[in-house]
């Protein structure tokens, strides 16, 4: 495994030390530990980390969410929040910063390692996708939604990579559909189809197998469209489920 360079922003000294020891045991390089968001902001461009572990409640004038917002104005880097603040408003506010994941402390060591690996790889893939869009790649010429879904240790699916065809099929942007959440097309699926689809997704995650489904969605204009979705699993070397790669197309009658 390649050595990833991690910046830790945490105001509790013991927690910062413990996190650093975990990261070192994973083979990662810790670039620095920062108590204040202001200090992290000052050094982030110079250090150019592969990923930032960010506490929500920091010493100083800026909390972790504001610090992340300011960092993203300077550098494109994935962020994972580590926090004891699990209230709904804090979680919702954190989503606006495009952080990869929100993890509650204390965290499971293996889950943290897995999440870091997924965050860095997904960020790399997202950059590749941006380049593909810039140069009008094949992905953007496909008249379908192409996506990659990360599945965490608890079996929770989250869309981490997709092309820009959602609006063509649904009339909505992703933010309009989900309000910065990770449900993807589920809010648009008609009620009669939802339970069946949820069960198929759950079974696919448990069995590590793909699925192919037809269902109906309601578009922004109020039209009903018939949709076909097919996905296949991507497994780690140890057999654990890593991603689902899928495609969503409109069935023209």
Summarize the structure.
The protein is of the alpha/beta class and 253 residues long. Helices cover 40% and strands 27% of the residues. It has helices at 13-25, 37-47, 64-74, 88-95, 109-134, 138-141, 166-170, 174-178, 191-207; strands at 5-9, 29-34, 51-55, 79-83, 101-104, 145-151, 157-162, 211-218, 224-235, 241-250.
Percent helix range: 25-40%
Largest pleated sheet = 5 strands, parallel
CATH-assigned homologous superfamily of the largest domain: Response regulator
Compute the number of strand runs. 10
Q: Which CATH architecture of the largest domain?
A: 3-Layer(aba) Sandwich
Low-confidence stretches: none
Q: SS-based structural class?
A: alpha/beta
Judging from the principal axes of the Cα atoms, what is the shape?
elongated
**N-to-C order of helices and strands:** EHEHEHEHEHHEEHHHEEE
Radius of gyration: 19 Å
**N-C termini distance:** 49 Å
- CATH names the topology of the largest domain as Rossmann fold
Q: Kindly give the count of domains.
A: 2
- Beta-strand portion reads 25-35%
Within the largest sheet, what's the order of strands? 2-1-3-4-5
